[in-house]
Design goal:
Pfam families: MGS. The protein has six helices and five strands, in the order βααβαβαβαβα. The chain is of the alpha/beta class. It binds 1,3-dihydroxyacetonephosphate (13P). The site of 1,3-dihydroxyacetonephosphate has 13 residues, from α3 and α4.
């Protein structure tokens, strides 16, 4: 059997409720995939979907975005869904930018808001 696709899920604090709702609404699709997530986001996803295969990495400000960037570089993450808060300054803004840069360098699908994430889910599930 082919390896399951691995999707990275991340949400900034003001977007975590939205991501939890999104994860629940698409639980059947996510159940077919491996999931990696930054620490707090992963916890929120598991709160609403405890059966999903979620690997929690470090929290974003403590290196979680960089861990996911490294997994993109090694080919271990094939899809990035990142609900970004565009209205709040982040201490780890450079890490966020570096993550997005690697998603572009390695040309993986990257959704930065819910509308795009919905389309990625529709397009990628099988
Ligand atoms: O800060 C983040 C992304 O930049 C997300 O990290 P948490 O999921 O740990 O809150």
């Amino acid at each position: 059997m082919a390896d399951r696709k691995c999707v990275a899920l991340i949400a900034h604090d003001q977007k975590k409720d939205d991501l939890a709702i999104f994860a629940k609404a698409n639980e059947a699709v996510f159940a077919q995939w491996k999931i990696v997530a930054t620490g707090t986001t992963g916890g929120r996803v598991l709160d609403v979907c405890p059966g999903l295969d979620v690997t929690r990495l470090k929290s974003g400000p403590l290196g979680g975005d960089q861990q996911i960037g490294a997994m993109i570089a090694t080919g271990d993450v094939q899809l990035l869904i990142f609900f970004v808060d565009p209205l709040t300054a982040m201490p780890h803004d450079v890490d966020v930018k570096a993550l997005m840069r690697l998603a572009i360098v390695y040309d993986i699908p990257m959704a930065l808001n819910r509308a795009t994430a919905e389309q990625l889910i529709d397009f990628n599930h099988n």
